[in-house]
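Shape matters. Shown next:

___
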Amino acid sequence: MATSTQVDRTVEERVGSLLSEECLTLAVAESCTGGLIGHRITCVSGSSGYFAGGVIAYSNEVKVRELDVDQGILASEGAVSEPVARQMAEGVRKRFATDAGVGITGIMGPGGDTPGKPVGLVFVAVSTAKDCVVRRFCNSGDREELKWQSSQCALNLLLDVVRH
C-alpha cells in the first residue's frame, strides 16, 4: 500500500529513490524528448549518485555513431520503431557502463507523421543486464505536451522494470 508521502512524490523522485535503494545506475538515450528525461532526473537532489548521463540522439547519424544503432534497422524500420528504441537503450547502457539504460524515440509533431506512424507515437525501451523491455505509446496533445507525456511514459516504464 502506498503512503501519502509516496503518492505525493513525482515519478522522477520515485525513480531516484528506487535506484538509490537498489544501488543501481542509469543512463538515457533521448531522441524525441530532447533531454527532458535527463533534465527531470537531475532536478532531484542526489541524482548524481545514480545518474551517469545521457545522449541526445536526435539525428540518425548520432544514433549510429554514439549508440551503435544499426543503419540497416534505421533504413528498414525507421527511426521511430521498437528495434531502434531497444538498440538506443542497450547502446547507452553499454556506453555509460550503467545498470539500466532508457531509450526513447517518437514523433512529437506537428508534422513528421507517416502512414502507420502518427504524431504522438513513441517507443520507450528500458535495458538492464537481465532484459530489455520495449513499449509502444500513442499520446495526444501539442508538441510540449507530447514531450512531457513521453517522458512520463519512460520514467514510469523504468520504475516498472527496475521493480521487477
